[in-house]
Design a protein that fits this description.
Pfam families: HAUS2 (PF15003)
Number of helices: 9
Shape: elongated
Helix content: 55-70%
Number of strands: 2
Distance between the termini: 166 Å
Strand order of the largest sheet: 1-2
Order of helices and strands: HHHHHHEEHHH
Strand content: under 5%
Mean pLDDT: 72
Length: 206
């Protein structure tokens, strides 16, 4: 009962407002429809309403299109100027395409190198059976890991030292041969080398 009483009180208030403002409401209803309208024939009203709904959903795109259309109308330059302005665009696009292809190729190359590097580091070292008993493991394993090849190879410093030593030996041998040839007398076949007496012989002679 309380809800019904509240509903009746609300309806009574609305009716009182209508009765008090009836003259103004009647005057408003008697006035002609003065808003702007687009006259459309009856057979096209359905299509026109659908067009309005679609235009309302695409209002942003339509606004942009209208702005572009107005700009094109205000652009008074001849077509030759348009051609000069649009000519660098294909060249720039081609340059961008080549740069993108080069970057893609570089990326693929780096990826390939990275995969090869990872695969090379992941491969285990080859194992060979140990011939020397000292190389056998304590646990009885008969295989041992071979050392990398670069540890057994000579370095550039060792090669340089060996070459210098060989050159010095060859130079000394050449000097010895030259000295022997210079002291030899071709007439009597004797050599003019200086003879040195031992110290004991010198003392006895004195």
């Amino acid at each position: 009962m309380e809800k019904k009483c509240e509903t009746l009180a609300r309806i009574t208030t609305i009716l009182k407002d209508v009765i008090q403002n009836k003259d103004r409401i009647i005057a408003r209803l008697q006035q002609p429809y003065s808003l702007d309208c687009i006259p459309v024939e009856a057979e096209y009203q359905k299509q026109f309403s659908e067009l309005l709904m679609k235009a309302a959903s695409d209002y942003g795109a339509l606004t942009t299109a209208v702005t572009d259309f107005q700009w094109s109308q205000n652009f008074k330059e001849p077509p030759s100027v348009w051609g000069e302005m649009l000519r660098p665009i294909p060249v720039a696009l081609a340059s961008c395409t080549r740069f993108f292809e080069a970057m893609s190729a570089t990326r693929e190359s780096f990826a390939t190198l990275q995969s090869l590097r990872v695969g090379h580091s992941a491969t285990p070292l080859p194992t060979t059976p140990a011939k020397d008993p000292s190389h056998r493991a304590i646990g009885g394993d008969s295989e041992h890991t071979t050392l990398p090849a670069w540890k057994n190879e000579t370095s550039f410093d060792d090669l340089a030292i060996k070459s210098l030593r060989s050159q010095e030996l060859e130079r000394q041998e050449a000097d010895d041969e030259n000295s022997e040839v210079g002291d030899f007398d071709p007439v009597d076949g004797t050599s003019h080398r200086r003879l040195s007496w031992p110290p004991s012989v010198k003392k006895n002679g004195l």
